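Hello Y.,

Per our agreement to keep a running log of every chain we model this quarter, I'm adding this entry. I've kept the format consistent with earlier entries: sequence first, then predicted structure.
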Amino acid sequence: MADVRSLPIPDGLEGERVDAALARLFGLSRSRAADVVATGDVLVDGKTVAKSDRVHAGAWLEVTLPPPPAPPRPVAEPVPGMGILYEDSDIVVIDKPIGVAAHPTTGWTGPTVIGGLLGAGHTVATSGAAERQGIVHRLDANTTGVMVVAKSEVAYSRLKRAFKERTVDKGYHALVQGHPDPLRGTVDAPIDRHPSGDGRFAVVAGGKPSVTHYDTIEAFRAASLLDINLETGRTHQIRVHMSAVRHPCVGDLAYGADPTLAARLGVTRQWLHAVRLGFEHPTQGVRVEFESPYPDQLARALELVSADQP
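Predicted structure for the entry above:
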């Protein structure tokens, strides 16, 4: 059933575009807000508006919000190249390949970790939303490396708590452009959705607290290999923070990377790999740690950039 809302435009939205105002008021993406405007279901002082029109404080807003789409369900089919690093009755630790999302989302039609596990005969916990059962943390679709999925309900609840309480060691290697100064440091900057509404994220005042620690492993002429540890786990966190300090991950064109360098190194996605994951086993009470080697594309790019020395 459609959801009809009527309210005055708050003072804080004075001068905002209609689509931006809807996004902020109702938690929509900018693209979904624009779709609602396009249907004619948005009235300001009784008149239809365009998405680029500006709103004024105190104007009367009437919106008919369509029902949210049903969440996509995982498709159980094996995922080529998705290796199993460890498995017991409580957890399964995978080596996630490129082009695989953690779980189904609206608009994603590619393979998923959950679908791959189910398709290969593995069980996962039933806790969590239907489309992300067993998922306690995520990697971007084009970020590779170590990821743990809960198989039992107790593992799900304890691992979710461990990630929330930041007792999990999430270690990444990233090849970034240039040379960070200082060579070791911390990026502490809040992250939220990019104002453009195009799916990217950005450092935004009032965003969610986000902390990234980095240490330079080796500096090359055009790039630096970093060891990165996350305190928080925001979407695209490493990519956003490295771009914010003007050292985007090599190949990360969405966040400002040089396409010429990416092409020269044969990198078709961000050079970012989850190399290690350490946590207390949810039922055995011992600390466990898992590691993943670089995929071939990233290893080859590292060879090329290291050979390109003065």
